[in-house]
Amino acid sequence: MRRQHCVTAVFTALTAVGGITRADVTIGAAEIEHDGRATPEALRAAIAVAGYEVTEVVEERRRLV
């Protein structure tokens, strides 16, 4: 992603993925918070529809004890 149009296209594509509670999309990256339903595969598929490829997924899990 190199332009604002790309950011908008990816953000819009992510709206089709169930469970996302927040998506912060910037040029070259996206940070997504979800309720557990948004799998890396679902995110990759949605972003591919927008014409882009996910090159890396880093999961940071949070849990309450």
TL;DR?
This protein has helices at 4-14, 40-49, and strands at 20-26, 29-34. The chain is of the alpha+beta class and 65 residues long.
What can you tell me about this protein's structure?
With 65 residues, this protein is of the alpha+beta class. It has a single domain, classed as Alpha-Beta Plaits, CATH 3.30.70. Helices cover 32% and strands 20% of the residues. It contains 2 helices and 2 strands. Strands 1-2 form a two-stranded antiparallel sheet. Strand 1 and strand 2 form a beta hairpin. It is globular. The model has no long low-confidence stretch (mean pLDDT 91).
Please describe the topology of this protein.
Layout: H1 4-14, E1 20-26, E2 29-34, H2 40-49
Antiparallel strand pairs: 1-2
Give the C-level CATH assignment. Answer: Alpha Beta
Q: Mean of residue pLDDT?
A: 91
The helix tally amounts to 2
Task: Provide the spatial order of strands within the biggest beta sheet.
Answer: 1-2
Annotation, overall tally of beta strands:
2
List keywords for this structure.
65 residues; alpha+beta; Alpha-Beta Plaits; two-stranded antiparallel sheet; 2 helices; globular
